[in-house]
Amino acid sequence: MQITAAVLRAADAPYTIESLDLADPGPGEVLVRIAGAGMCHTDLLGRVPGDLVAKPVVLGHEGSGVVEAVGPGVTGIAEGDHVVMSFDACGACANCRAGVPGACPQMTALNMLAAPLDGRPRATDAAGEAVHTRWFGQSSFATHALGTARNVVPVTRDVPVEKLGPLGCGVQTGAASVLISLGVGAGDGIAVFGAGAVGLSAVMAARVAGATVIVAVDLHESRLDLARELGATHTLNGADADIAGQIRAISGGEGVQYALDTTAVPEVVSTAVASLRTTGVCGLVGVGASEYTLDANLLLMGRTVKGIIEGDAVPQTFIPKMIELWRQGRFPFDRLVTSYPLDQIDQAEADAQSGKVVKPVLIP
């Protein structure tokens, strides 16, 4: 079928809006008409020089929309279903079976490479050349995307489906890191470093969990203002001196039990660990750093540093929970969203990188 997609042909090139020929859904696949697609920081990996993300490629991994067709062998998903598209996983390994599909050994191959594992292109351009459309099992910067039965999550039809895409990755990562991976509870304290979509989702989740100290740290005052509105009890500008000392003072001198870094900036990660009390846990969800240097004495005193992928969530169960919290007014993730037409994708990207907006959502 003919679709319209935003194609990235080189790391340093603008997106081009093109007509592509997309294959019919094959075994285990689901065709989704995209109503909205969030732009996530991870999509910027397509801008990194090198061969990690095959080109030309359709990026986008926070799609939501309506199922138009299903391939052979698909059960539990039907034409007309409203769905959120999340990350892909094999579904069969020990980690997938244990309920942590984000730690699937095939995570990189199924999500980060964008190229089809079987070598068969699923989309071609006007010249008949292959365009990669396997980014996070969906490539949703388009009018239509092919997902799999593993990463397409049916949701209730009485909520605006065009708003739901960010639940598939960024919002899920922030919220589930707090509620599932770290297990923040009532009365706990947490410091969140970076008040983008992931960090602000973590702030909202910490309020849901009943944390009594919720510190948000960022360089943008507008984002800190929003963090306070969404549940942060304290905010700090990351450019200020001795952030770790300020957090320890806020939390009674000992430090917070939990910290979450969304920045992947080594100096910020060091500060996050230093802000913990002994026995505290720092979760790392930021992407892009090659190495971190930490004070060994802080770790010897009982602190833990934990890598987290997708919040350790199972999307099929966690995404409906976030939607229900939103319906109750307890998780207003839509306040993070600014909508753009698909053909304004370059402007959306620029606005996200500058900090002007928190979460762009592209509307085909």
Automatic annotation (TrEMBL):
Domain Enoyl reductase (ER): residue ranges: 15-362
State one molecular function term (GO). oxidoreductase activity
Q: Give the matching SUPFAM superfamilies.
A: GroES-like, NAD(P)-binding Rossmann-fold domains
Keyword terms of this UniProt record: Metal-binding, Oxidoreductase, Zinc
Alphabetized InterPro entries for the sequence: ADH-like_C, ADH-like_N, ADH_Zn_CS, ER, GroES-like_sf, NAD(P)-bd_dom_sf
> Which Gene3D superfamilies does this UniProt record tie to the protein?
Medium-chain alcohol dehydrogenases, catalytic domain, NAD(P)-binding Rossmann-like Domain
Q: One of this protein's Pfam families, by short name?
A: ADH_zinc_N
Could you tell me which PROSITE patterns the record lists for this protein?
ADH_ZINC
User: Transmembrane stretches, by residue range?
Assistant: none
User: Which co-factor is required?
Assistant: Zn(2+)
Q: Return the PANTHER family for the record.
A: NAD-DEPENDENT ALCOHOL DEHYDROGENASE (PTHR43350), S-NITROSOMYCOTHIOL REDUCTASE MSCR (PTHR43350:SF21)
Q: Which family does it belong to?
A: Belongs to the zinc-containing alcohol dehydrogenase family.
Q: What is this protein called?
A: Aryl-alcohol dehydrogenase
Species assigned in the record: Actinomadura hallensis
